[in-house]
């Protein structure tokens, strides 16, 4: 008999003020740009300044969000640490490559190379709390975070672990933005985040963030929700998406009509939002719908923001006006489905319920 | 959680061979693949030795029907290995069972990213490589090449234990019933990035690497693609497949000691080996051969040697060898390369020599296997350790 899996705590650093768990999107930062940077928490409260200076942004953000999650769960250590990141500490990777080329392979120092390793964040957290348990890092574009969830859920269901720290993190750096704007993945003109879905332009608004959660097979007072199911697909044709969703729901003894909220990953890219719009007006037309990338912006682990949002909604029993995508109201949300894809690939479904 | 995980196909390309058979032939004939570097222009060319695959990308492009300079080298090596693995397993339709793909890489498309780093802003000639910097992009290209659709696909990057972890995840997903079949492994090409990175850490040898030798000077970097097909027992029964070996045990732990160095006593390595033995339900004295991580860096071989003594007992460590003197250290892929070598060892009841060993280390009396040795093997243990304190152990066995 598989054990149930609970989200016992959350921690978020994002381009919105999400680092304080006592608030819930009370103040919204509006962007009118092609990129959005994290709203920095007071790093000094978490990291000694001498250490912070050399730290990659992704490590700093993750130190705060992982400590927030551990503290809220009342834990000093965990059985495993699993992190998803599309690009790791890309800032250090880019700097190291630039140094190699511009200095003709001379006068290099190891710090940037060391931090370039994709598993730096998971390794640093383990080092910080002295966790000798299982330590994995998934680096698969838009399903990096979901891969971590799948792994954690499997271990908790099988009772191989009690508490697992799971997270998703990506940092944004100029070189990456510039190169990806060249190939049209990032918008070339600013988009107003309050009108993101009607920007009618190609590409997305790129951002960054770090979201950590303690998942456990034991419910406690701090528990936010139950993670019922998570599945990823490398490809799905647009026509076949409703079928995939229905069979995923069926596998978890649910149906579309049971969903109190559907959270969609629309990012204002005129070429790819059709995947979501088809569902909004089709399979989910009678269900309450929400979106979030106008708040989080787009990055490989942006679905971590959606997971954070869902956990928060289920615990607080309120859906912030700013995320609503249609007029259908729900008074007590019990079950939420999150659907995401990026540029037509790496589709993911996550199902959460109140407990 | 008691289901067997069968290995039904393997594919590999490394500095000692372009397929499984060529790799095995090199292993038993003591033929190393370490040489001067020829495909990458680097100012360190005279000071380093590498495990380089001598075939240029242009030849691979022709072989795979790819347009010129469309893919970086990592996905190319991965495609070659994955295709060989599927062919050996006799799989013609990858989508006929619930199948997944779990790849691993450290550099992904870095060889191209560093080549066109500034050029991207001057011309659009090589923009096809921009997205290749994402590690997952190499996996996507492998999935396209083998025709995998609407399926579970992910990429692991835990430095030099990555492919061992890909195999571990695949085995766990089959045991848990999440997948019926999974293609697991990794791919990493040589790049200026890793050459210079390891150079700054001062752990590159200027000559042939000598694992577990007192006078070891560091590692030789290598490149490889290596994939295995894992299938559930129900597929084996239904399809009457030939089973090459089983993934019997696996364990991952963190040393939590230092970002790049292993602890003196190999705490993480001990934990990983103990977990793997527990999952396999085996006692240490049931292990017949250890394919060690043995990178030939001063730090790794000391730490791993001590860990082996702690797990198996002083004077009780079974025959062991590192095959890094053949292939170089293939980073993310090392665990995949060595899992395949472990299966070949089981199939042929044969232990490979630890090349270049002369002087025992002064810290302990561990002597690696120096000559090819024939011995009835039932269980082989393979270690892979990486940056971030990442320690992984696989146990490959003849029986489930």
Automatic annotation (TrEMBL), chain A:
<dbReference type="GO" id="GO:0005829">
    <property type="term" value="C:cytosol"/>
</dbReference>
<dbReference type="InterPro" id="IPR000794">
    <property type="entry name" value="Beta-ketoacyl_synthase"/>
</dbReference>
<protein>
    <submittedName>
        <fullName>3-oxoacyl-ACP synthase</fullName>
    </submittedName>
</protein>
<keyword id="KW-0808">Transferase</keyword>
<feature type="domain" description="Beta-ketoacyl synthase-like N-terminal">
    <location>
        <begin position="47"/>
        <end position="219"/>
    </location>
</feature>
<dbReference type="Pfam" id="PF00109">
    <property type="entry name" value="ketoacyl-synt"/>
</dbReference>
<dbReference type="InterPro" id="IPR014030">
    <property type="entry name" value="Ketoacyl_synth_N"/>
</dbReference>
<dbReference type="GO" id="GO:0004315">
    <property type="term" value="F:3-oxoacyl-[acyl-carrier-protein] synthase activity"/>
</dbReference>
<dbReference type="InterPro" id="IPR016039">
    <property type="entry name" value="Thiolase-like"/>
</dbReference>
<dbReference type="GO" id="GO:0006633">
    <property type="term" value="P:fatty acid biosynthetic process"/>
</dbReference>
Automatic annotation (TrEMBL), chain B:
<dbReference type="Pfam" id="PF00109">
    <property type="entry name" value="ketoacyl-synt"/>
</dbReference>
<dbReference type="InterPro" id="IPR016039">
    <property type="entry name" value="Thiolase-like"/>
</dbReference>
<dbReference type="GO" id="GO:0006633">
    <property type="term" value="P:fatty acid biosynthetic process"/>
</dbReference>
<dbReference type="Pfam" id="PF02801">
    <property type="entry name" value="Ketoacyl-synt_C"/>
</dbReference>
<dbReference type="GO" id="GO:0004315">
    <property type="term" value="F:3-oxoacyl-[acyl-carrier-protein] synthase activity"/>
</dbReference>
<dbReference type="GO" id="GO:0005829">
    <property type="term" value="C:cytosol"/>
</dbReference>
<dbReference type="InterPro" id="IPR014031">
    <property type="entry name" value="Ketoacyl_synth_C"/>
</dbReference>
<comment type="similarity">
    <text>Belongs to the thiolase-like superfamily. Beta-ketoacyl-ACP synthases family.</text>
</comment>
<protein>
    <submittedName>
        <fullName>Beta-ketoacyl-[acyl-carrier-protein] synthase family protein</fullName>
    </submittedName>
</protein>
<dbReference type="InterPro" id="IPR014030">
    <property type="entry name" value="Ketoacyl_synth_N"/>
</dbReference>
<feature type="domain" description="Ketosynthase family 3 (KS3)">
    <location>
        <begin position="2"/>
        <end position="398"/>
    </location>
</feature>
<dbReference type="InterPro" id="IPR020841">
    <property type="entry name" value="PKS_Beta-ketoAc_synthase_dom"/>
</dbReference>
<keyword id="KW-0808">Transferase</keyword>
<dbReference type="InterPro" id="IPR000794">
    <property type="entry name" value="Beta-ketoacyl_synthase"/>
</dbReference>
């Amino acid at each position: 008999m598989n054990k149930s899996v609970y989200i016992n705590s959350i921690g978020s650093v994002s381009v919105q003020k999400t680092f304080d768990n006592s608030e819930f999107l009370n103040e919204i930062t509006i962007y009118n740009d092609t990129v959005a940077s994290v709203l920095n928490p007071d790093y000094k409260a978490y990291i000694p300044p001498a250490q912070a200076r050399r730290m990659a942004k992704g490590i700093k953000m993750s130190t705060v969000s992982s400590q927030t999650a551990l503290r809220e769960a009342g834990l000093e250590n965990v059985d495993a640490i699993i992190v998803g990141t599309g690009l790791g500490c890309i800032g250090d990777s880019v700097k190291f490559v630039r140094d190699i080329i511009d200095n003709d392979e001379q006068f290099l120092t190891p710090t940037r190379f060391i931090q370039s390793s994709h598993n730096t964040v998971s390794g640093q957290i383990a080092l910080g709390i002295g966790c000798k348990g299982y330590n994995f890092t998934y680096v698969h574009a838009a399903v990096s975070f979901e891969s971590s969830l799948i792994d954690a859920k499997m271990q908790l269901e099988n009772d191989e672990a009690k508490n697992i720290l799971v997270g998703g993190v990506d940092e944004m750096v100029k070189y990456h933005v510039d190169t990806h704007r060249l190939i049209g993945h990032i918008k070339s003109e600013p988009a107003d985040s309050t009108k993101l879905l009607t920007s009618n332009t190609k590409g997305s608004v790129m951002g960054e963030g770090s979201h950590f959660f303690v998942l456990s097979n034991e419910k406690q007072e701090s528990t936010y929700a139950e993670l019922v199911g998570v599945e990823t697909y490398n490809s799905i044709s647009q026509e076949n998406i409703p079928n995939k969703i229905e069979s995923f729901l069926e596998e978890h003894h649910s149906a579309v009509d049971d969903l109190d909220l559907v959270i969609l990953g629309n990012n204002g890219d005129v070429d790819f939002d059709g995947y979501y719009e088809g569902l909004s007006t089709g399979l989910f037309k009678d269900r309450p719908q929400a979106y979030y990338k106008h708040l989080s912006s787009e990055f490989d682990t942006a679905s971590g923001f959606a997971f954070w949002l869902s956990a928060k909604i289920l615990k607080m029993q309120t859906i912030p006006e700013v995320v609503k995508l249609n007029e259908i109201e729900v008074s007590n949300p019990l079950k939420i489905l999150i659907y995401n894809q990026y540029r037509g690939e790496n589709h993911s479904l996550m199902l959460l319920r109140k407990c | 959680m008691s289901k067997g995980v069968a290995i039904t196909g393997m594919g590999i390309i490394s500095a000692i061979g372009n397929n499984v058979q060529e790799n095995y032939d090199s292993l038993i004939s003591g033929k190393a693949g370490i040489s001067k570097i020829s495909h990458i222009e680097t100012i360190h060319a005279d000071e380093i030795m590498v495990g380089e695959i001598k075939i240029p990308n242009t030849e691979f492009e022709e072989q795979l029907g790819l347009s010129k300079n469309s893919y970086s080298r990592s996905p190319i090596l991965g495609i070659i290995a994955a295709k060989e693995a599927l062919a050996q397993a006799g799989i013609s339709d990858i989508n006929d069972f619930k199948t997944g793909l779990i790849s691993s890489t450290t550099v992904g498309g870095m060889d191209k990213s560093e080549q066109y780093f500034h050029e991207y802003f001057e011309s659009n000639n090589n923009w096809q490589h921009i997205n290749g910097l994402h590690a997952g992009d190499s996996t996507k290209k492998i999935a396209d090449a083998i025709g995998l659709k609407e399926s579970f696909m992910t990429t692991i990057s835990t430095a030099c234990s990555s492919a061992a972890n890909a195999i571990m995840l695949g085995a766990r997903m089959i045991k848990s019933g999440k997948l019926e079949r999974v293609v697991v492994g990794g791919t990493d090409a040589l790049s200026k990035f890793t050459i210079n990175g390891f150079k700054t850490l001062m752990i590159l040898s200027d000559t042939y690497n000598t694992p577990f030798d007192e006078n070891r000077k560091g590692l030789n970097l290598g490149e490889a693609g290596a994939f295995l097909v894992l299938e559930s027992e129900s597929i084996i029964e239904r399809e009457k497949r030939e089973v090459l070996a089983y993934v019997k045990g696996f364990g991952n732990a963190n040393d939590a000691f230092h970002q790049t160095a292993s602890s003196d006593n190999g705490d993480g390595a001990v934990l990983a080996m103990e977990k793997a033995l527990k999952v396999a339900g085996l006692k240490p004295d049931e292990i017949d051969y250890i394919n060690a991580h043995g990178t030939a860096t001063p730090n790794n071989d000391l730490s791993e040697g001590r860990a082996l003594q702690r797990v198996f007992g002083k004077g009780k460590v079974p025959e062991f060898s590192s095959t890094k003197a053949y292939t170089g250290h293939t980073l993310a892929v090392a665990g995949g390369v060595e899992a395949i070598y472990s299966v070949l060892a089981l199939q042929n009841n044969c232990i490979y020599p630890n090349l270049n060993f002369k002087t025992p280390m002064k810290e302990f009396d561990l002597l690696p296997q120096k000559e090819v040795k024939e011995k009835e093997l039932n269980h082989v243990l393979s270690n892979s350790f990486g940056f971030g304190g990442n320690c992984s152990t696989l146990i490959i066995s003849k029986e489930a």
